[in-house]
Amino acid sequence: MPDVLVLVDHDGERVNKTTYELLAAARRLGDPAAVVVGPPGTAARLRESLARYGATSVHAAEFAQAADFLVTPAVDALELAVSETSPAAVLVPATTDGREVAARLAARLDAGLLIDAVDLDSSGVVTQIVFGGSYTVRSQVTHGTPVITVRPGAFEPEELPGGAAEWTLVPPAVDPTTSARITDRRTVLAGDRPGLTEAAVVVSGGRGVGGAHGFEVVEELADAFGGAVGASRAAVDAGYYPHQFQVGQTGKSVSPQLYVALGISGAIQHLAGMQTSKTIVAVNKDPEAPILDLADYGVVGDLFAVTPQLTQEVAAR
Ligand code: FAD
């Protein structure tokens, strides 16, 4: 079986769930080979959990300043791993960084790039949902090693007890004179909530929430579920909630088990980022709101009257 390289998304201590999903996707094409980029010791910490979710090998590209650079170390490590293993494909999470890594890698390899895959079959045919969800497209790379970004939540992680990953050290090759470096770091609020793209439940607020203060009801419901908070672009543009929580075409793509839309009309650009959620619940005071056409469960009413009752109900369980 050929290797399938998977770029590992991690925080230094633990592997993000998206990576486990990518390992499951990779198994459809070959043997998943995890590529870990980070300071020395990172891969050793992550190796066991990577093996448990199907990685048959781990390529560790480690150097002391790894966290100081943006995407270049990952692109370098993947390029090197491709030249050494001739993989069937490279899978990268469709996150903000992942998209940039994938585009740069495909350009360096002169290879085809497919973005935002929601499915993948054993012959390498990728399913994408495009134009804000209007079309489902199936495509296949015909030139070079396919580079594929995979939408978080699109695949179910598969735990494989007894797995053991082989270990390879890849020499890092970052050129500090040509690589973007992080000079200032700001911690963004996320609290104890799970990451937006890996949460099983996402509760999002829109312009209907009415202001930053109004997001408290959104946060309370998210916390009752142990979920993440999202926001529509209108809410973000109005300054109600920070941009990193935006869901949609120009924000994050999410596919949780449950997506709750509070005061969100359901513009096509918002749907593009959440319509593959397994179950969708919407609360909107307008019975004509398009989100209610997509929702599995719709409540027509004032979100400030409905949401606290929902929160109370969920918290009581
Ligand atoms: P609105 O459309 O104003 O809807 C607010 C809703 O709240 C209404 O349906 C109203 O009935 C309801 N409401 C009001 N008060 C209450 C209440 N008390 N209780 C219950 N319901 C209430 N949008 C995104 O979200 N993500 C994107 O990534 C994105 N990218 C875009 C990219 C481009 C190129 C463009 C052109 C647009 C993009 N948009 C995106 C914007 C998108 O078109 C919409 O403008 C936006 O999604 C609307 O956000 P909203 O639903 O919160 O606001």
UniProtKB/TrEMBL annotation:
Residues 4-185 form the Electron transfer flavoprotein alpha/beta-subunit N-terminal domain. PANTHER family: ELECTRON TRANSFER FLAVOPROTEIN ALPHA, ELECTRON TRANSFER FLAVOPROTEIN SUBUNIT ALPHA, MITOCHONDRIAL. The keyword Secreted does not apply. Belongs to the ETF alpha-subunit/FixB family. Heterodimer of an alpha and a beta subunit. Keywords: Electron transport, FAD, Flavoprotein, Transport. This is Electron transfer flavoprotein alpha/beta-subunit N-terminal domain-containing protein. The electron transfer flavoprotein serves as a specific electron acceptor for other dehydrogenases. It transfers the electrons to the main respiratory chain via ETF-ubiquinone oxidoreductase (ETF dehydrogenase). It comes from Streptomyces graminofaciens. SMART domains: ETF. It comes from the Bacteria. Its cofactor is FAD. It holds the Pfam family ETF_alpha.
